[in-house]
Amino acid sequence: MIKSLLLILGRRLASLVPVFVIVSMLVFVALRALPVNPAQMALPPQATLEQVEAKRLEMGLDKPIWQQYAHWVGQAVRGDFGDSAQYRMPTSEVILSRLPATVELALGALVFAVIVGVAGGLSLFAVRGTPLEGVAVFGTSVLMALPDFLLSLLFILLFGVIIQIFPVNGRLGPGMIVPDQTGFLVIDAFLTGDPSLIGSTLSHMALPVMALGLAFAPLIIRVLHSSLISIYEESYIRQARMRGLSETQILFGQALKNAMLPVIILVGTQFGLLFGGTLLVEMIFSYPGIGNLMLRSMQSSDLEVIQTVALIYCATTLLFNSLADALAYMINPRLRSS
User: Residue 332 carries which DSSP code?
Assistant: First the structure.
């Protein structure tokens, strides 16, 4: 099975290459079509016209667009994504210093959404056929109507202003310093063993994680609920009852594993939306990740950073789609037999 799994995963990853190339071309052409002179942006404001023209020739901006793209690809495969016009340093360094914050935030939100979604789906299934089912479905509809940025503002008002139990900006309390060992603040805080640092990092993550996760959890609840109802119509559930298995044994030993298949596919295909949601959520909470960096770069027309961050979001979405396919293959025996 492992060999087949790796083969499928390899095929899926290989099929992503042309998709990624096309997306990178679209992003490159779209950014070059903007009324912004990359050569001028790469130089200090006091640069002369002669210096701007020399920089334009150095960057190959006088060549056709396809040659510019080929030049960019040649540099990108060597890890050179150009220099940030805003920070006056290599783009890769700018992004790598902020990427761990976004990864921590997105993974934390994903774990939160899956826990809430699975617990909610099971609870909704448990009250099926009762008046509580309608109330719960209505509640998920309300949550689905609230986008992550609106949830962020509501949480700031509720937990940051009225109740004041969570901080509403940054990643760490004032005056606190966590020694950088892995680049991931939460892991580094746990490595110190200092409860105050651990508590500060987790409390600063709480509201953005809840905002991103609660925007995603209702989808999981609905899909798991529908999947369980469909599974319980299968003949093997009736046979399990005839064998004398309890409802708890049927649910957790027979039905839930199969019902999770569409949930896994949903999580894999929709994770890109959750990851993309970090753009606004990080800005609202002043969270120093690549989403915040992206918006600030758009304000300053920092094309190299915009392009690289956009491709990171694209690659993450494609990668998680492939991982979802691989996980579905592992769980579903029908896929393995086919």
Answer: -
Confidence of residue 199 (pLDDT cuts 50, 70, 90): very high
Cα–Cα distance between 63 and 50 in angstroms, integer? 18
Quick one: residue 64, left, alpha or beta (phi over 0 = left, psi -120 to 50 = alpha)? beta
Burial class (CB in 10 A: 0-12, 13-18, 19+), 271: buried
Its pTM stands at 0.85
Q: Which of 239, 172, 158, 250 is nearest to 205 (CA)?
A: 172
State the CB neighbour count (10 A cutoff) for residue 261.
Answer: 17
Across the range 8-34, mean pLDDT stands at: 85
Determine the residue type at 284: I
Q: How far apart are CA 61 and CA 39, in angstroms?
A: 8
> Residue 288 in contact with residue 280, Cβ under 8 Å?
no
Is it the case that residue 5 has pLDDT exceeding 80?
Answer: no
* 284 CB-near residues (< 8 Å, 6+ apart): 149, 152, 153, 156, 208
| The dihedral sign for the CA sequence 56, 57, 62, 63 | negative
